[in-house]
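Entry 12.
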Amino acid sequence: MDAWSRFQDYKKAKDLFFSYGFRPRIANRFIGSKCQRNAALQAARELGMEPELKDYYRKKGVKWFHYVPYFMVKDPLFMIRKFFWQRTFLEKYYKPRYEFRNILLEGIA
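Predicted 3D structure (tokens):
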């Protein structure tokens, strides 16, 4: 279920970065956990924005060993919060705005 949620994050991040370019506000949306950051980094990598995103996260104090999500440290009772269950395991399906395969094929042709 967590992989499903991170895949939805990846699709959202890719759409947002493609539409608006790199923006700190978009990057902050995915800064909460290592898995979310990885989803955003993969989307940014595919769009050529990975160095900007990595640099931004580095400036925000994110280290490579920050595996435990920040909200877990701030709120030890996170397991009983509705937001945790929705954001971690029950993320709704996100329909991408763009068909990136077609865009890539158009660019090649």
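Annotation: The CA atoms of residues 54 and 73 lie 22 Å apart. The chain has one domain: 2-108.
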